Amino acid sequence: MVEPLPLVFDAPRRGLPPRHFADLDAAGRAEAMGELGVPAFRGKQLANQYFGRLEADPGAMTDLPAGLREQIGSELFPRLASSVRHIEADGGTTRKTLWKLHDGSLVESVLMRYPDRATLCISSQAGCGMACPFCATGQAGLQRNLSAAEILEQVREAARAMRDGEVPGGPGRLSNVVFMGMGEPLANYKRVLTAVRGIVSPPPSGFGLSQRSVTVSTVGVVPAIHRLAEEGLHVTLAVSLHTPDDELRDTLVPVNNRWPVTEVMDAARHYADATGRRVSIEYALIRDVNDQTWRGEMLGRLLTQRLGPMAHVNLIPLNPTPGSEWDASPKHQQDAFVAAVRQSGVSCTVRDTRGQEIAAACGQLAAEE
Predict the structure, then answer these.
(1) Domain ranges of the chain
(2) Residue 170 — pLDDT band, cuts 50, 70, 90?
(3) CB within 10 Å: which end of the chain, N or C, has fewer?
(4) How far is it, in rounded angstroms, from Cα 162 to Cα 130?
(5) Contact status, residue 331 vs residue 350, Cβ threshold 8 Å
(6) 89 vs 95, 121, 154, 158, CA distance in Å?
(7) Whole-angstrom Cα distance, residue 110 to residue 122?
(8) Is residue 121 among the annotated active site residues?
(9) Sign of the Cα pseudo-torsion (98, 101, 106, 112, in order)
(10) In this structure, is the dihedral angle defined by the CA atoms of residues 317, 320, 324 and 330, taken in order, positive or negative?
(11) Is the CB of residue 248 less than 8 Å from the CB of residue 277?
(12) pLDDT digits (tens, 9 = 90+) for 46-64
């Protein structure tokens, strides 16, 4: 039996914006049309505009009667976020956006264009309550959950920017979304799940991205991992492990004091077995903290025993935050760690680092603002 989520992970709508069209499923849209006194087919028109044409301004929805656009705009399309600024790196192919939400909260998203794909890293909370000491967002604390629509708006804007050729390389398509921005996605479970379904459902019900191209990251909220395993989705689960031993992880990832490594691994195994999807193990390599070769060997043994071929280690060179005591490992130690993990037969790669000159680590831009 799946353990119910603690109440702290299903917080009320405190601070959330007014209802938005993107918050609603098909039944909710039909109900909203009834409340407005318009035919149900208008809901399908709106869905096609929002998800299919990437249009969020009812004033520009020319298939709606002119007299209806203002009403629908005020009732179902409140302004959720405004762009404070964009900063770019890598010749403009990495673009970070700082968003100001309706209550003044700040969140970030990062769009990264590669030759074969375009990946968007999105936020699911304003701030984060997980308190990981090496993370800028974690040190800022949690302000509030984002609504499903606030999450989906980050995706719509990036998809529109790619389509309209705003990113160097000409018009293109958003192909991948990773929930690795500000916040702990599984601590905002219901709204993140609604957003995931909006990302992967085919138009006009969603943006139509492949489930395999969506990654949901977690520090190890065990009950939520078990619940996600039973949702019938096949997105990639990424577990931010950062060390294989409880003693150090209690410090680096404080939620480990509630759900230790073995429980996190059991939940990850449940997800892998239920979905057939390999689990990505995220590991931020920190100089003289968790980068010892013997820890790489321990990590390899742990994953071999618990996940076998269903594990892949994604090694992340730490992106230091200003004034932090934490620093990235030197290249030779990084290479030694990778070799130690691979010696156990576990797949291990090093994440491509982008945007260090634009404060790419989550939370840095918001903290500067």
Answers:
(1) 21-76, 81-368
(2) very high
(3) N
(4) 32
(5) no
(6) 7, 15, 19, 16
(7) 7
(8) no
(9) negative
(10) positive
(11) no
(12) 999 999 999 999 999 999 9
The active-site residue, picked from 150, 325, 362, 369, is 362
pLDDT per residue as tens digits for the range 331-353: 999 999 999 999 999 999 998 87
CATH match for 81-368 among 3.40.50.300, 3.20.20.70, 3.30.1020.10, 3.30.70.100: 3.20.20.70
Q: How far apart are CA 17 and CA 177, in angstroms?
A: 23
Give residue 14's pLDDT.
Answer: 59
| 217 has binding-site annotation | yes
Question: Is 256 within any annotated ligand binding site?
Answer: no
Residue 86 dihedral angles phi and psi, to the nearest 5°: -110, 140
Catalytic residue among 108, 150, 153, 282: 108
Domain 21-76 fold: DNA polymerase; domain 1 (1.10.150)
108 is catalytic: yes
Q: How far is CA 62 from CA 53, 160, 312, 349, in A?
A: 12, 18, 48, 48
348 is in an annotated binding site: no
Is 201 annotated in a binding site? The answer is no
CB of 47 closer than 8 Å to CB of 28: no
**121 carries a ligand binding annotation:** no
- Reported as a single tens digit per residue, the pLDDT across 5-23 is 443 444 444 578 999 999 9
State the number of CA atoms in the 13 A half-sphere of 209 facing the CB. Answer: 30
Claim: this prediction has a pTM higher than 0.85:
yes
Q: List, in sequence order, the alpha helices (H) in the chain.
A: 26-36, 41-47, 66-76, 136-140, 148-163, 189-200, 222-229, 246-252, 261-275, 293-306, 331-343, 364-368
127, 140 contact by CB (below 8 A)? yes
Beta strands in 90-194 (DSSP E): 94-101, 106-113, 118-121, 125-127, 142-145, 176-179
